[in-house]
Write a structure and sequence with these properties.
300 residues, alpha/beta, six-stranded mixed beta sheet, four-stranded antiparallel beta sheet, 8 helices, globular
Length: 300
């Protein structure tokens, strides 16, 4: 697969009264067409900042993002964002919320009939065809997120950006949404970058997990390739040794190796594959402020 998105030597600084605050330092990541990549790390590690630069909402202080051979300088329909909160307009129906995006992108290239069929297709894709004429106040939180995903997909983006999209949902709804997202990604082969604080979610959904070091001047600490066969079924993976090994590796990084990478101890990053040699001897240094051992890291 060819490289679709290239984040190269990206720094991000924000002005403050005491001088510039460096949020990100020298972030490098290549993402291929059809990949599902998760960003994970402690609060304040710059995950959302990375996503905002890719979305074109921020411009990097140094370095930048190349998408399909073109530099990202502003928002565009080739990058659709799904936030933790559904962001639906409450006075519009599910159909009308998706229609807003479709008209913005396709008003010159699709007829009214084609746009109607396309809107209905994307709502059916997220299993919301039955609630097409309902307003946000008439549907559940999970259903609202489905409409938000349908709206994003209806733009036919090259990259789908998801900022903790299931963080506000209950566990059962979250599981259903994860399964739906895997089905959609398998059908469309779209490229997804997702922020999550849930280790199990990251391992279940991802082709690679990007683990961020703590801020300020956060950067990529490790990148873990998830070599699990698709389609993936959570019940089958519960006792899978490979799944549990990946899960343990992410937890180990989050709880033991989440500080800045030490060139003497950190595994070397392959600049062509953006992968690390996970067989390297791990850094034994522990941060005493981090005592949690559960699979979900505190959200921002």
């Amino acid at each position: 697969m060819s490289v679709l998105l290239d984040i190269s030597h990206m720094d991000m600084e924000f002005p403050n009264p005491k001088g510039a605050f460096t949020a990100l330092k020298d972030v490098n990541l290549k993402i291929r067409q059809g990949e599902f990549v998760s960003l994970i790390g402690h609060s304040g590690c710059g995950k959302s900042t990375v996503l905002n630069v890719v979305a074109g909402l921020y411009q990097a202080t140094r370095g930048g993002v190349i998408l399909n051979g073109k530099e990202v300088l502003e928002p565009g329909p080739e990058r659709a964002v799904v936030f933790q909160n559904h962001s639906l307009l409450p006075w519009l129906t599910a159909y009308e919320n998706v229609e807003l995006a479709v008209k913005q992108v396709f008003r010159k290239s699709k007829s009214k009939v084609e746009m109607r069929e396309w809107i209905e297709h994307n709502l059916n894709l997220v299993h919301m065809g039955h609630a097409i004429h309902k307003r946000p106040s008439e549907i559940s939180g999970g259903m609202k997120q489905r409409v938000g995903i349908a709206r994003a997909l209806a733009m036919q983006p090259k990259v789908l950006l998801m900022d903790e999209p299931f963080g506000a949902l209950d566990a059962l709804t979250r599981a259903h949404m994860q399964d739906s997202l895997m089905e959609i990604q398998a059908e469309l082969n779209n490229t997804v970058i997702m922020i999550t604080h849930d280790v199990d979610e990251a391992v279940l959904l991802s082709d690679r997990i990007v683990m961020m070091t703590n801020g300020p001047a956060a950067t990529i600490g490790e990148i873990l390739k998830i070599d699990l066969e698709r389609p993936r079924h959570r019940l089958d993976l519960a006792d899978d040794t490979h799944y549990n090994r990946y899960r343990a590796q992410v937890l180990k990084f989050l709880h033991e190796r989440h500080s800045k990478p030490d060139v003497r101890t950190a595994p070397a990053l392959n600049t062509e594959t953006n992968s690390v040699d996970t067989g390297s001897e791990p850094d034994k240094t522990k941060n005493k402020n981090t005592e949690r051992t559960d699979a979900v890291v505190d959200a921002a």
